[in-house]
Amino acid sequence: MVDTTPLEDWLVRLERQHPVAIDLGLERVTAVAVRLGLNAKSLAGRVITVAGTNGKGSTVAMLDALVREHGWHSAAYTSPHLQRYNERLCFDGQEVDDAALVEAFEAVEAARLADEEISLTYFEVGTLAALWLIKRQQPDIALLEVGLGGRLDAVNVVDPDVAVVTTVAQDHAAFLGTHLDTIGQEKAGIMRSKRPAVLGSAVLPASVRQHADSLEAPVFALGERFGWQDAADGWQWQGETATGEPLYLHALPDPHLPLDNAATALQALTLVGVALEETACRRAFERAILAGRLQWQGAWCLDVGHNPHAAAYMATYLSRRPLRGRRFCLLGMLADKDAKGVIEALASQIDAWVPVSLSGDRARDAEQLAALLSARDAQVMQCAASPDVGVRWLHANMDSGDEVLVCGSFWTVAEASTTLGKLGVMASPRSMS
């Protein structure tokens, strides 16, 4: 018998207790939140929620670094995780420990069963547990990454001081549909009446702005009230205070994450009352780390991107990197993702491919990916039974100067990273080299 920890026992239990894994809606989770008293007192001094198809994790990571470098205490809730569930909640950059999570799960369970029993999903319980811990900690600023939805996402039980929408693209079609205006309306559902909304992309469906206007929410949009430009000594940012006073920052270092997201983080932070200091901002961008987003382990670049929009950003980044050898892609994707679109977005930067199979109910096998690649006349070097097998095969067959992009899913990146560690290929101290 394999010994398990109390936290592992809880996570297994939570995965099994609700009839479906994803069950969008706020009625059940709100009722339990009320029982927990989460509506009775603010979670933190300030709350920023971040929604969007891509760029949420990058924005939260940079917000967290900026908050801490300015001397404020932070809580950051994100999902999903790569290696450990504890990654989902950090206080001042430190992962919450097992004992705290178990205590929070016990509190949520007691509230769930009080009076009439209410069924909750794994994500809903995890979100309520995180909010319970954040309320107990009372940080200066709480940063909450919204899950796949927006309006009906469990995180949306919280009323933010500032709502951020990063990007809107097609993903999770079974839950959000395929029409960008509809998806945008759902993401914009995190906004609140007359509270600032930060729009982190210059290309968003009209429904996002329309929803903000309907709430009379002050809109701070990239390319309008804030933005960034390249400069000889780095990049520079300009934005506005809540009252419209202009702000400027100069000679900012490359955070090795999308600068649209960096600029968005700066604008959101000004709107919760943080007086930006150039020195603190420089330190934050030098130190911000986001595991699994253009993260390098030796010659291996790991990115959890799993839709065409994210893949297009990866391709742009790779196109700017000098390359001495060949570039391979180890690709593993779930069956409900747009694999064809991801392949098309990456194809110009990849010399050869190693598709890998994933496991589980939503799995897609390597042969299905290989068929899509062959239809594009792409070179398939090997089909692998798992990311672990694919990494080991490539590690044995790549030459000095070659690079590998690992992408397509959190599961692909997590397993590949673990295998690379076992092979002695260590992660770089920054998210990218």
Automatic annotation (TrEMBL):
<dbReference type="InterPro" id="IPR036565">
    <property type="entry name" value="Mur-like_cat_sf"/>
</dbReference>
<dbReference type="Pfam" id="PF08245">
    <property type="entry name" value="Mur_ligase_M"/>
</dbReference>
<dbReference type="Pfam" id="PF02875">
    <property type="entry name" value="Mur_ligase_C"/>
</dbReference>
<keyword id="KW-0460">Magnesium</keyword>
<protein>
    <recommendedName>
        <fullName>Dihydrofolate synthase/folylpolyglutamate synthase</fullName>
        <ecNumber>6.3.2.12</ecNumber>
        <ecNumber>6.3.2.17</ecNumber>
    </recommendedName>
</protein>
<dbReference type="GO" id="GO:0005737">
    <property type="term" value="C:cytoplasm"/>
</dbReference>
<feature type="domain" description="Mur ligase C-terminal">
    <location>
        <begin position="295"/>
        <end position="410"/>
    </location>
</feature>
<dbReference type="InterPro" id="IPR036615">
    <property type="entry name" value="Mur_ligase_C_dom_sf"/>
</dbReference>
<dbReference type="InterPro" id="IPR013221">
    <property type="entry name" value="Mur_ligase_cen"/>
</dbReference>
<keyword id="KW-0436">Ligase</keyword>
<dbReference type="GO" id="GO:0008841">
    <property type="term" value="F:dihydrofolate synthase activity"/>
</dbReference>
<feature type="domain" description="Mur ligase central">
    <location>
        <begin position="50"/>
        <end position="196"/>
    </location>
</feature>
<dbReference type="InterPro" id="IPR001645">
    <property type="entry name" value="Folylpolyglutamate_synth"/>
</dbReference>
<keyword id="KW-0479">Metal-binding</keyword>
<comment type="function">
    <text>Functions in two distinct reactions of the de novo folate biosynthetic pathway. Catalyzes the addition of a glutamate residue to dihydropteroate (7,8-dihydropteroate or H2Pte) to form dihydrofolate (7,8-dihydrofolate monoglutamate or H2Pte-Glu). Also catalyzes successive additions of L-glutamate to tetrahydrofolate or 10-formyltetrahydrofolate or 5,10-methylenetetrahydrofolate, leading to folylpolyglutamate derivatives.</text>
</comment>
<dbReference type="GO" id="GO:0046654">
    <property type="term" value="P:tetrahydrofolate biosynthetic process"/>
</dbReference>
<dbReference type="InterPro" id="IPR004101">
    <property type="entry name" value="Mur_ligase_C"/>
</dbReference>
<dbReference type="GO" id="GO:0046872">
    <property type="term" value="F:metal ion binding"/>
</dbReference>
<dbReference type="GO" id="GO:0005524">
    <property type="term" value="F:ATP binding"/>
</dbReference>
<keyword id="KW-0547">Nucleotide-binding</keyword>
<comment type="pathway">
    <text>Cofactor biosynthesis; tetrahydrofolate biosynthesis; 7,8-dihydrofolate from 2-amino-4-hydroxy-6-hydroxymethyl-7,8-dihydropteridine diphosphate and 4-aminobenzoate: step 2/2.</text>
</comment>
<comment type="pathway">
    <text>Cofactor biosynthesis; tetrahydrofolylpolyglutamate biosynthesis.</text>
</comment>
<comment type="similarity">
    <text>Belongs to the folylpolyglutamate synthase family.</text>
</comment>
<dbReference type="GO" id="GO:0046656">
    <property type="term" value="P:folic acid biosynthetic process"/>
</dbReference>
<dbReference type="GO" id="GO:0004326">
    <property type="term" value="F:tetrahydrofolylpolyglutamate synthase activity"/>
</dbReference>
<keyword id="KW-0067">ATP-binding</keyword>
<keyword id="KW-0289">Folate biosynthesis</keyword>
